[in-house]
Amino acid sequence: MKKNFIIAVFLISFAVVEYTSAGSLKNLDEKSYEKYETNLLEGLNSENFGLQFSCAYLLGELQSEKAVLPLVKLLRESTSEDLRIISALSLIKIDSELGIFMVKQGQKFNDNEKTREKCTRFYTAYIMEKYDIGLQNVNLFAIEVVK
After folding, report:
1. Domain of 14?
2. Which DSSP state fits 66?
3. Taking the CA of residue 8 as centre, how many other CA atoms within 13 Å lie in the half-sphere pointing to its CB?
4. Average pLDDT, the chain
5. 3-class DSSP state for residue 21?
6. Distance between CA 109 and CA 27 in Å, rounded?
């Protein structure tokens, strides 16, 4: 337990230092990006909820294609509804075909009601942005949203 905590603190510290020293995620050079991405992917496998949550969020901000499968796994299998929700949000941010499909499926098939609701909201927002649908012109019943 203590070893896991030390590893978690190290990974978070490294990620914060890398992020702040680079100025932003967009300005990372290739080597720093790979180290940052690898550390975040490692953090997803942690038993520490806070670390998993932060890593899932940051991988979405990073738009990491490597994170799609681990995030899909969290969305489908996590015991925490918060981890499922942040995974769905990150999958939308990454904007991969598989990730979007899994969030769309999460509207119907996720066994957690709150997660299904958030998947619906994230997917609807994604569709509205993708097709440039303004709120004043939206008919929510016309958008493919399944409860």
Report:
1. 2-137
2. G
3. 17
4. 84
5. helix
6. 38
